[in-house]
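Possible race condition, two jobs.
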Amino acid sequence: MIKYLGSKRRLVPVLARICAASGARTALDLFTGTTRVAQAFKSQGLHVTAVDSARYAHVFAQTYIEADAAATEVGALRAAVAHLNSLPGKAGYVHDTFSRQARFFRPHNAARIDAVRDAIDAEYAGSPLFPLLLTSLIEAADRVDSTTGVQMAYVKQWAPRSANPLELRVPELLDGPGRAVRGDAVEVAPGLGAFDLAYLDPPYNQHRYFTNYHVWETLVAWDAPESYGVARKRVDARDPATRSAFNSKKTMPDALAAAVRGVDCALLVLSYNDESWLGVGELESLCGDGRGGRREVATLAFDSARYVGARIGIFDPAGRKVGRVGRLSNQELLVIAGEPATVHRVVGATDSIGAARADRLQ
């Protein structure tokens, strides 16, 4: 998995227990990101629908959720990865933009990324292997980048891992079918169908995934966009169409309410945290208002270390420290809504893994 802001790595065991205790056979991951949670659900045998608006997230969903390991020509996939790993570097857009103008990748790796990405288009476009190989390339690039995990800046000195050679690996696919959908959560939710379990992990603040991971967007689009600023962001980052209602304190509550209302599910699980724009009471009220009327609601809280940027302070483009170290921890919240018996059962399944009750069941 790539380094990812808002990753639910620590909560996956909790969410897996909730999924198992719910008895669900179908699940929706409406803001899937790296698909980490969707994969946990699929590994339990559920048919999962993974949704995201980001190009790179859609590619991950095509690879880890939509692709069926049992129906994939693994030999052909391994051969393709080996072929791409054998290609010499060929300096192109990535080398010029993200190594010469910026310092996300060392020159030798940037040139290899260019060569591999061109070959994926030339030799595998339209093939079932296409998203799998794109995923392999993004994950390989992430292992040799020189950032703290987001692409709004690169570190002042080269990260040690950046000297390692780019190496693609065969993605670890899961058995069973699934569905990958690219689109705005609010717009697509009403048309996705009914689910036993729906998991929502919306953006929490003003930080935009489109700009935080603009390099991955460009690797998927492969459109050589005009770029700007120290981080050489895509110029379309300035387009209002690339902004999400979830990144504005003014528009986020209505957008989240619309997404919750649009989802048809027996059990809803919403991730949030305690330093964001809505309090626990507001979240519970919002999640309790389901399509079929009021739902039972419980909220669990888990202590969590904050993103590394909060622990090292804030730096200007020249690398000078200009901000103080921030708050070092927060609480990750899981708001669970559904039929009372189901809510009681899934909350009980988490009792042994460090959950603190943020409410009391009625």
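Job #2 (started ~2 s after job #1):
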Amino acid sequence: MLKARYLFYSLQFKRPAGTSRGVLHQKNSWFIQIWKADHPEFRGIGEVSIISNLSIDNEIDIPKELDELCQHINEYKSWITTNGAQFPAIRFGLETALADLNKSGNQIFHQNEFTNGEAGIPINGLIWMGSTEFMRDQIQEKIDSGFNCIKIKIGAIDFEEELKLIRNLRKQFSPQTIEIRLDANGAFNAAEALHKLERLSAFGIHSVEQPIKAGQTEIMAKLCQKTPIPIALDEELIGIQSARIAELLDSINPQYIILKPSLIGGFTVADSWISAAENRQIAWWATSALESNIGLNAIAQWVSEKKTKMPQGLGTGQLYTNNISSPLEIKKAALYYNPALPWQNPFD
């Protein structure tokens, strides 16, 4: 017999995080803990992580849904079938907690070079939106820290100012030295998106994430066909059920997809995306979606099993003043797991 409980946790940003959808000051998560009644000393933990106005989970309904799930945890398979599609963040937390429990509850899902502390996962340096000076300072900070892949969020300030920022970066560093990824979060108007992509293409850009808002399938497909810069689908994947994965990829045919397990329903769903993408010669990488270190750890270990060399978007563990203490560390533009460091248990 399984038992379960959950806990609400509000993560506080060290400094406001600017996106094209607004400025974030805090982010809500819930932790779910699962154990066997006859062996309560082993407890699995997972994170239910949402981003307001992006996750499809209805935030107001999450506590009630977690109440029901925890009360009937032994029927979790039925819950996945009936409610899992409506609550991908809960599904991610449930899947992670069960996997942790099955591995004795020490938050080691895969025993490999990463969890042994012998190898890191290459990551990009994330640049948040803000004033030109603020973004320039962040870029310099990341370069000084050894990052050779920079991801810049764009769409919040004047486009000409963003072009100037990128132009100045390219004057200092060639595409062979610094890889530039751009994340528009759907900020481009559909009518002007191709023109903006053409102007950006002068600077050797690796890719642009979600140039227009999700849901404009025909327009996005034409953009992916004509674009001078590879396009990566991000928000476009949220809310797509497994039966429609192949249909979406065939309709749009992007150059890349970006996987956020907590937004698309967990690792089983993410693996389905990878399988369908690789069958179509579409490349992928994974990013965290502002989870605490508990969710970030699960995603990082899942990525570590994929043996990919492409920089991942897993550098969010240092964003919060009250993150869960963990063995995760960033060193030399890579995410490492230090087995000598302890885990904080938010339920204690």
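The chain has two domains: 2-102, 121-337.
Logs attached separately.
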